Amino acid sequence: MIERKVDHTALKFNQASIIALNGLGWVLNQPVLVAFVALVMLVGTAVPAAALFQQIYFRILKPRGWLRPRVLTDNPEPHRFAQGLGGTVLALGAIALFLGYAAIGWALTWVVIVLAALNLFFGFCAGCFVYYQLSRLGVPGFTARPIERREVEG
Asked: With 60 as the cut, is the pLDDT of residue 154 above it?
């Protein structure tokens, strides 16, 4: 079995970016920030190498030592699914905001902010939980099974 690795610092930076930009969008009443974050999340889900927040981490923050990697044995699929789910909810929120349904739009945005914060601060990924439940039920496309996470040496 191939040991798969995920840098959880990259995931944490992604979550912090989602929280910060959406929070700023709410404070400034700028739906365009919500739409931007939704786009970044959806593009990063479809093309992981193009995930903007993770690219900032890998190309700028990590090489300069500003953030240190925390590489764990883990499956990337549940995290990608969670990002796609969050990006979809944000896209719906942005559409609602642009159509003038502010309460719905900001409520959807806050769902994503709260779930990203839950993951960032407490390590619970709601999207990953959903992914693994779908995997347990045998839903096609949800093939990764939970593995014991452990630090990967050097």
From this structure: no
